[in-house]
Amino acid sequence: MKKQLIAALTAASMLFVTSCSEQSVVREQKSQTQITLSWWGNDTRNEYTLEAVRRFEEKYPDIKVKCSYSEWSGYEARNQVQMVSGTETDVMQINVGWLSQYSADGSGYYDLEQLSDTVDLTNFSDEMLAYGRRGGVLNAIPIAMNAETVYINKTVYDRYGLSVPKTWDELFSAAEVMKADGVFPMAGAAKSLWLYCVAYAEQAGGRQFFTDDSRIAFTEQDFLTMIEFYNRLVNESVIPKVEDFQKFNIDSGVYAGVVAWVSDAMNYFKEPLARGDEIIAADYTVLPGLESGTGWYAKPATLYAVSRNTEHPREAALLLDFMLNSPEWAELQGIDKGIPVSRSAREYLDSAGMLSGLQYDASLVMENNTLISQMNSVIEDSALYNSFIDACDLVLFDKSTAEEAAAKLCEEYKAAGYVFA
Amino acid sequence: MADSRRPGQSIKNIRRTQIAMIFGYAFIVIAAVLTVTYLSLRKTDTVLKNEVTTLTSSLNVQMKLNLESYMSRMETIATLAFGDKLSYTYDATDPNNDEYEAINNEKVLSEKLYSLCIMENFVDYGIVYRNNRTVGKISNATSSLFGDRLFYELEKMISNPRYGDGWFTGFEDNFKRIYYVKQIHDNALLFISFYSYELGEVFDNPETLSDMKIRLVDKDYNIIYSKNSDERGLPLPEEIRKRIEGYSSASLLDDKYLVSVNRTGDWFVVCSIPTQIILNEKNEMTRFLFFTGIAAAVAAALVGFYLSYLLIKPVKSLVSDLDDKASSDRLTGILNKLAFEEMSSACIEHTLETEHRALIIFDIDDFKAVNDNYGHAAGDRLLRATGEILRSLFSEDDYLGRIGGDEFCVLVNSCLSDEKALRESVEAKCREFGKRLHSIAYFTEKSADITASIGISLFPENGRSFSELYNACDKALYRSKNDGKNSFSFFDPDTEREGEQ
Questions:
Q1: Which of A170, B23, B77, B392 lies at a 20 to 30 A Cα distance from A276?
Q2: Range of the domain at A243
């Protein structure tokens, strides 16, 4: 009995001691793969992109997306810093011109065909994918097509009894009527007005800006035409100076028209449309006797690329596919960047009745125009249009003659490395 | 068969004591364990609340420091603009400006400003002049939001006269962007803005604190930042607000919320979590502790039960042994007189009127002669044999006792339902007893004719208590003796009365 008692007490003691022994606590935190995404855009784009990223993270809880974004102004320089310093984001929205700038032989960005098991490339035609190829390597996938578009606030034009201008002359005539009230029949930011003037000069000179091998085909005379045209536009109050361009003047109706990208339709005209103004995507302005579209260019709106240095290609591919092809993203993006070229995104928008509105109309004007040319992305270089505006200002403020300014401009281009035909 | 192992009072007492010990011990153990558990829980509760409050307070302070660090970085980046002399010498409102020179100055200044904010997610980074002319990065959203009141509205955002700067959000209920404004000179303001979304990095609480809501609110308690973007711009929920109003740095815990607040400038960092979520963990701990306590109490009670069993078992055995010895006749092994009377009295006392019992007294005839003629040893053998005969004749339910030198008594408890059957059974047993007694006459060296006189009384006809039955039985025995012995007689009241007369 004594033995039983001792055994029982020993067992109880062991149980007590065991239960009281210290246990180490291990608490594992959820580990996530972080990838980075960059884009430029306005408020609307930023907001829906952030929301779409949230949806993506919800769908793939193991992936965290760190966003880097800004408005277009300054973004180009930011992208350059990132690209040359090797700090570019894993997935990035890029401009078509950057392909030639950073990936001359196709090695500047990730080869997306290596990710085709994750990114559904069958949604894109070969023609569209060709925009993203460099040296045969698929560097980027276009989101939509884009073109400078002539937006007219028809409500303002109607107020002055003016019809929607189709020619430059009609535009100058409209300015005659409107300038008494300080209203401009047209306005635009630097790059838009640069392309606006290029269009005029191509129509006037019958020459395209670039040769097929990317040499500048314009002559000094063509640049003179452009400078004189810009100065005339400003002096005759067709447009405000580039430096005076203020977005809130679109809201107030001070600018009765704007030349801007298809993708900028809602960025610029949200307020007037909300107010009830009738905004239309007009025909591309031309000289009398020419067909609308002559001298105007279209390009992929923007493209998505993946960093060649990415450490997480699978996750980047998942995000890329989600952005290009998923209904979740398409629902939020709508036609903000233009009509998506991805078949599945386009079908979703069509079935959801989202293919409508000013931006859609602008896209149709672009798509239905047979004369509009495919843009050589070099024409968007900021060095080209900034120098042009500087040259225009020289003339505008009587610092030099137009001829001198044109000659100086050509010299600057040559000094910057542009080759003339 | 009723034998010497009657349930004695001592055993009953020991059993009662044992039960009292077990239950008393169990009660004390359980009460002690529960008390200790309760006190531990109270203490743990207090410690837990203090710890959680402290941790939340620490988290809040950390968030505040994160925010201040972030804001300080933004201010530093904004101040970099002063690195270019043009930024504080150029005045776009100066009527003496040469327009061309002004445009070029603005281009240079814009380039400079762009390069300074290049790597940040700024919405705006620019300078606005009193005539609302801007340079640098000015978003369309800001342009639309303020229109031609840009300078006027931004100037009002300056709240810190020492540095001539200020933070602001919520202009016309727009909480999407946060603005920082710094005066350059009377006609120029430097300002930056970024999305409140950017504060997600600042307030990114760890997964383990995912239930904690972290919000940044302005001085009017409107939410500037919350992880739930739908909340931004809305007033802080009333139940949170009323708890922190008036505090600039505090942590409070009550039945519903644990709330912590810290002021930074005109804004407050507010961390809150429903107390219920904290209590869930505490309740889990409470259940665990009570379960452990109950398990310990049950285990202790079982051990106590086992120990008391070990302790009581020898005592019970000893007492039982003593009890047996005290209640039995040592010669025959059946009950002694005292025990028989106690048990029979108790039995009859609890017998119903509808039941039937019989009391029988066996008296060995001329027993003295057996002793005299064959010795006391033979007499003892006869008595032992008589006990054996009675054991073999009567059932386990019947009480057997030796109530005198040669007198035996049996309380018949069987055949209780039918008086006639009882009589017949008793008669048969008496006859059989006579036969068997006679047959053992040969156990002595010399033959002796051993007989017995038997008296029988019945319950309830002849008495309703043991003493009544015994008297009646004694009278019936006396009659058997008078009738020439070696016979049995039932008590007959009429015969007894005649005899008395």
A1: A170
A2: 146-298+372-415
